[in-house]
Design brief:
heterodimer; B: 4-stranded antiparallel β-sheet; 11 helices; globular
């Protein structure tokens, strides 16, 4: 295999590829093979975890578009996922739309709602904006539990199983393919977005909004577009949960959800697509791994095993704090370090 | 022929008057220097032109290449940029976490099309647009000798290089008029000379109208066609550099009561 650092591009087109180097394509190929083989080897327990990761990846990329790339802090993730989930469910239940159409419309509805709740961003920044989005979270939570005529209040909404060509899609195996397709599609869309005009404008608004406006970026439009784009994918994640579980309950979309998703993108890496996936995977797997460790230790060290469930919340907090201290750029940066190492290997001095 | 006309411009912040009744023009194709002591209102003039400040009174008119006049005092910053007004800042304002290339691509923002959907799908037209504008940006990179820094993150660059990148970003916009706010601030003699050379090249080779603020009087006197001197938000002198240099009011503003001392 040729050394990675020996790759030179002679055309802008090849230089501007998402994966311009051969080693990157090989890694992508390996990942693709793993994703294709995994569901045939894994049992329903691990498949279920994989599906949760796929959904969380879509939601985390959505949140990262807003928080990591555009620099607009949002505590309304749970609310936007709720809008996606409830819209997708209620459109099918009340209007009889096919589930696919409902999900697509739910994304659009969430995007519109997101840009509405994004209006304060035109005046507010940082913590003040975070509080404004917290208001969105509270309003939606209140609507979910009290607007009984539409949402059914605290009662769960039960949906018909989604079917594609006669196959029930909410089984762990079938949903896996749907989930992977959605996550891959979202990742590809976001990766493309941030190498083109509008995505660059998002990042410019984050880094230096005044300079962005003076170079020709319409701040008003760009911020609202960021909220809309982000909410579109967050709504998709919500709609996916609705049809995966075929049951919608308000408890899934509380402020806790908002914070867990923020943790994902912080641990994974703000402003990074692969980081969104890493964070989604780690935060989804962490409780499962702790639970497994508890079961494994049940016989040998019952005292530790009994303590572990309580440790779960603490571990969650500790992981976030450790990342903030030791690697604020998240798992994405760690992975980047590994890649850089091999990129210039064996000439480590060539690293900048 | 004036490209930019400021007429009776007044800007106040609460009780503080930044500009009072300022009338001046920028002629097409000239290199105009804007000088004055600290707090004279130089940066305020640039901020009014680029739409960051709104003057309470007065008008700013830009005459486009096709002869139409645009009232800049009523337009938001991004519309003013689209009319070909580009600028740099006193305290470098770059997009720190983006590469040099991406910073410069933002200079092409107003000339490109494409929103979220076409960007995310990256189909034929968007792809071609990105490549076409990349070519344009590469010309600017070549002009400013930034090749070795192309894919470096801007926040990690040396101070002098950041100033060059900021100017390159403004140039990528293909401006009709370029506003430079203290482009040589904080530079050593060598860097100042190279920056002055770039400014002259921009002006002479690319035919761009330049308005430059600087405190280095030697640089200003060397490169500018015409000088406007401000003090306390008013224009106190105007003319070719050598004339302004000997102007009594200017010497007053900079050194205090010169006439009294001499007499």
């Amino acid at each position: 295999m040729s050394l990675e650092c020996g790759v030179f591009h002679t055309r802008y087109e090849s230089d501007m590829e998402l994966r311009p180097r051969p080693a990157q394509r090989i890694r992508l190929g390996v990942l693709a093979v793993f994703v294709l083989v995994f569901p045939f080897l894994a049992g329903p327990y691990w498949l279920d975890l994989a599906n949760q990761i796929a959904i969380a990846t879509v939601g985390a990329i959505g949140l990262n578009i807003l928080v990591g790339y555009t620099g607009q802090i949002s505590l309304g993730q749970g609310a936007f996922m709720a809008i996606g989930a409830y819209s997708a469910g209620l459109l099918t239940l009340n209007l009889g739309l096919p589930w696919g159409v409902s999900i697509a419309l739910a994304c659009v509805i969430t995007a519109v709602a997101g840009s509405f709740f994004g209006l304060p961003s035109l005046r507010l920044k940082g913590l003040y904006l975070a509080i404004a989005t917290l208001a969105a979270q509270e309003i939606v939570e209140w609507a979910m539990t009290h607007w009984t005529a539409v949402t059914g209040g605290t009662e769960a909404i039960v949906l018909p199983a989604p079917r594609l060509f006669g196959v029930r899609l909410n089984s762990t195996f079938a949903f896996y393919w749907f989930g992977v397709a959605m996550a891959a599609g979202t990742a590809l869309f976001a990766a493309n977005l941030f190498r083109t005009r509008m995505g660059r404008a998002f990042v410019a608004v984050r880094d230096q909004d005044i300079a962005a406006s003076v170079i020709g970026v319409n701040l008003f439009r760009t911020k609202l577009l960021a909220f809309a784009t982000s909410s579109f994918f967050v709504g998709l994640a919500g709609a996916m949960i609705a049809y995966y579980r075929t049951i919608i309950t308000w408890e899934r979309f509380t402020l806790d959800t908002s914070i867990v998703y923020l943790a994902m993108i912080i641990v994974g890496g703000l402003g990074s697509i692969r980081g969104s996936f890493f964070g989604a995977a780690l935060i989804t797997l962490l409780p499962a791994l702790i639970a497994n460790a508890g079961r494994a230790l049940q016989d040998t060290a019952p005292v530790v095993a009994n303590l572990l469930p309580y440790a779960q919340q603490a571990v969650f907090g500790v992981v976030i704090i450790l990342f903030l201290i030791f690697e604020p750029k998240g798992l994405s940066k760690l992975w980047g370090n590994v890649k850089d190492y091999f990129h210039v290997w064996p000439f480590a001095y060539r690293r900048e | 022929m004036p490209i930019l006309e400021l007429d009776d411009l007044s800007l106040r912040f609460g009780g503080v008057t930044a500009l009072s009744g300022l009338t001046m023009e920028v002629r097409k194709g000239e290199l105009l220097a804007l000088i004055g002591p600290n707090g004279a209102g130089k940066t305020s003039v640039l901020n009014c032109i680029s739409g960051l400040y709104r003057a309470q009174d007065g008008t700013i008119a830009l005459t486009a290449a096709d002869g139409t006049r645009h009232p800049l005092h009523r337009l938001p910053p991004h519309r003013i940029a689209a009319l070909g007004v580009a600028r740099t800042f006193q305290n470098i304002e770059l997009f720190k976490h983006m590469t040099v290339l991406e910073n410069l691509m933002l200079g092409r923002h107003v000339h490109m099309k494409g929103g979220v959907l076409s960007g995310g799908l990256y189909l034929g037209r968007q792809r071609r647009a990105e490549i076409e504008h990349r070519r344009h940006v590469e010309e600017v990179i070549d002009f400013m000798n930034l090749e070795p820094l192309r894919s470096r993150e801007v926040g990690n660059l040396a101070y002098g290089n950041q100033r060059l990148v900021e100017m390159a970003r403004a140039l990528a916009l293909d401006p009709a008029i370029l506003l430079l706010d203290e482009p040589t601030a904080g530079m050593n003699a060598e860097e100042k000379e190279s920056m002055a050379r770039f400014i002259l090249d921009v002006h002479e080779e690319r035919g761009i109208t330049v308005v430059v603020i600087d405190h280095d009087i030697d640089v200003i006197m060397d490169i500018s066609d015409r000088v406007v001197v401000l003090d306390f938000g008013r224009k106190i002198a105007e003319g070719p550099p050598e004339e302004v240099r000997g102007d009594a009011a200017v010497i007053d503003a900079y050194l205090g009561r010169a006439r009294g001392d001499v007499a």
